[in-house]
Amino acid sequence: MKNTLKKRIDRLTTPEPTITIFKGQEFYITDTGRTDQKEKISVKFSVQFRNKQLLQLKGPALAIFICIALHINEQGQSWPSVKLISHETGYNKNTIFRCLKRLEFGGYINRIQKTNIKTGAFKSNVYQLFPKSKRLK
């Protein structure tokens, strides 16, 4: 009885994943009969994402969030440059910076600015999706 109650409580308090990151081997065969395999990382958005985040994110903020998510690694980190985000979404830098602030304020991303240890010059941003779920290292 105690175990059943614990499972029910866990099911109620553990949210369903909204984004799933898969890293593994993909095997394929072509129409010429060639077979091969490659390691692949893929990102899957669940219905939970549609029910929760899609209601809140619109327009450029949604596009920029998806762009960041599509560059994610298995630790949940992503580091596309603003130039790359601009190229892939079609939005200008000012729009991207405004949306990054909005995504950060809304708890969708955490942004850490990396610098060169020797020179102190800006190197890149590292983004963590849903930072409350995992601490950015």
Protein model, in words:
This protein is of the alpha+beta class. It has a single domain, classed as Orthogonal Bundle (Arc Repressor Mutant, subunit A). 36% of the residues lie in helices and 28% in strands. The protein has five helices and five strands. A three-stranded antiparallel sheet has the order 3-5-4, with helices on one face. The protein starts with a helix and ends in an 8-residue tail after the last strand. The mean pLDDT is 82.
Topology (SSEs and partners):
Layout: H1 2-13, E1 19-29, E2 35-45, H2 47-52, H3 59-69, E3 77-78, H4 82-89, H5 93-105, E4 109-115, E5 122-129
Antiparallel strand pairs: 1-2, 3-5, 4-5
Helix pairs in contact: 3-5
Per CATH, which architecture? Answer: Orthogonal Bundle
Broad CATH class: Mainly Alpha
Give the ordered list of helices and strands: HEEHHEHHEE
Strand content: 25-35%
Instruction: Report the C-alpha radius of gyration, rounded.
Output: 19 Å
Give the key terms.
single chain; 137 residues; alpha+beta; Arc Repressor Mutant, subunit A; three-stranded antiparallel beta sheet; 5 helices; 28% strand; globular
Quick description:
The protein contains five helices and five strands.
